[in-house]
Amino acid sequence: DVKVTQSSRYLVKRTGEKVFLECVQDMDHENMFWYRQDPGLGLRLIYFSYDVKMKEKGDIPEGYSVSREKKERFSLILESASTNQTSMYLCASSGLRGSGANVLTFGAGSRLTVL
Amino acid sequence: AQKVTQAQTEISVVEKEDVTLDCVYETRDTTYYLFWYKQPPSGELVFLIRRNSFDEQNEISGRYSWNFQKSTSSFNFTITASQVVDSAVYFCALSGFSNDYKLSFGAGTTVTVRA
Questions:
Q1: CB distance from B64 to chain A under 8 Å?
Q2: Secondary structure (3-state) at B72
Q3: CA–CA dist A105, A57 (Å, integer)
Q4: Mean pLDDT of chain B
Q5: Kindly report the CA angle at A30 between B52 and A70, in degrees rounded to 5?
Q6: Share of chain A above pLDDT 70, in %
Q7: Is the dihedral of CA B100, B111, A38, B6 positive or negative?
Q8: Which of A49, A54, B78, B106 has its CA 20 to 30 A from that of B84?
Q9: What is the pLDDT averaged over residues A22-41?
Q10: How far apart (Å, rounded) are the C-alpha atoms in residues A81 and B62?
């Protein structure tokens, strides 16, 4: 069964802490994404990566960075967590551009609370 | 700019009732894709359907059906004879052909099916 696995389901952090959210996919997908989900706002794209070491900003990249050192792993980093980053974070992946590139497979999400 | 509007925030029905979820979109692209995803309480978004703008045929898959009307920029989703397992948040999404891996999501509609 193909999967996107997010390492932490629930996290509680303090303001100013550095936070790492990890995501691993086992489908050999080229594209990986980090979305943020908030009530009433749906999903908003933070960053995506179309290849190892390649990344592009999404719609709301401020306050976040990403790392993709290996094809299967895509990390989201909050350099200095703030309370307005309390949210559900969803990782997704997809195959090459073309017919399958925009059919995303999602992980179960990481719910982050920043106190 | 692309925009997806799901005006219904929450819908509550009794089992076996039909439920229709509305989705209205805005895009300047002449060709594009439309999607529906389901997010059950477990949190993982599940892909339901992708439709490209060339194909305005309605689609039925079991108890699910989709009505795409380009003239009104709508892509509505109907669940026939709803079941408790249909309780979830449903998201409509849109992507262009040129950057087809970037999806714009609506705010989501929460469907509750009561036994």
A1: no
A2: helix
A3: 20
A4: 92
A5: 160
A6: 93
A7: positive
A8: B106
A9: 93
A10: 45
CA distance A16 to B14: 46
Whether the per-residue pLDDT at A2 is higher than 70: the answer is: no
CB distance A42–B35 less than 8 Å? Answer: no
Amino acid B101: pLDDT: 74
Short-list B11, B18, B12, B57, CA closest to B34: B57
- Give how far Cα B14 sits from Cα of A76, B11, B21, B76, B87, Å: 40, 10, 15, 20, 11
> What gap in Å lies between CA B47 and CA A95, rounded to an integer?
14
Band (pLDDT 50/70/90 cuts) for residue B96 is confident
pLDDT tens profile B56-83: 888 888 999 999 999 999 999 999 999 9
pLDDT at A98: 60
Q: Is the dihedral of CA A32, A103, B78, B62 positive or negative?
A: negative
Instruction: Specify the length of chain B in residues.
Output: 115
B50 lies within 8 A of chain A by CB: yes
